Amino acid sequence: MIRITIASKHKDDRKIINTLLSAQDDFIIASVGTDSFHAVRSSMTLKPDIIIMDYYIEGNNGPEIASVIKRNSPSTVLIVLCPDDKYNVVDNALNAGISGFLLWKKDLDKLASAVRSVFYGGLYISESARNILSVRFGIADEAARVQQRLLTVTENNIFNGIILGQTDKEIADDLNMTIGALRNCVNKVKKKTGLQNRTQITVYAMLNGIIDIGKVKKTLFNKVG
After folding, report:
1. Which domains can be identified in the chain, with CATH numbers?
2. How far apart are CA 50 and CA 183, in angstroms?
3. What is the predicted pLDDT for the residue at 79?
4. What pTM, to 2 d.p., does this model score?
5. Would you call 112 exposed, middle or buried from its count of C-beta atoms within 10 A (0-12, 13-18, 19+)?
């Protein structure tokens, strides 16, 4: 079961979120509150799997308290709901380590999918925000298609490991590689794509269809089973 805390300043919004998520058999609503202080308290006492909160919320904005929540509960991941997707808003959210960015009203029907994606180590970003990220990382459509064709099966498997949040050792063990060989392979990927770190690799993979969240989750379930 996925345990969720909700923090939203408007009563109607809290009700909508609660109703949507309570309809899911694998979700449990651990607590509901009105401000950032509730989100922080929840991270300290309940340690939920997911905290869903307004980007603009009473107390401190989502990105401002993300580090506090992570210190209290490193395993808790955050999703923010925002009324706009301007460049600096999306940028601030990702830099703060927030795993889900959805637009209020427009993306509410995708909220359950977002919860499952971030719970299993992925990122979930609204479609319009993805376009902003493409610009941010300088990924032109045609260049992305060319780069994708250059990636090997092993490199795609490494992307899967990265999006699941695996360490270098875990990925190397899964692929029967040495740590040195893995890091050489990651460096080749970075050169091919022009990306610099795990966050950029993950976003690139999601934007360009290299990562299939459904397949990643199925792989994870098979390992657990």
Report:
1. 2-135 (3.40.50.2300), 138-224 (3.40.50.2300)
2. 31
3. 95
4. 0.64
5. middle
pLDDT at 133: 63
| Interval 138-186: pLDDT, tens | 544 444 444 455 667 788 788 777 766 677 888 889 899 998 898 888 8
Which residues touch 35 (CB under 8 Å, ≥6 apart)? 7, 9, 57, 58, 59
DSSP secondary structure, 71-127, as one string: HH-TT-EEEEEES---HHHHHHHHHTT--EEEETTTTGGGHHHHHHHHHTT--EE-H
In 3D, which of 151, 186, 147 has the Cα closest to residue 166?
186
Percent of the chain with pLDDT over 70: 73
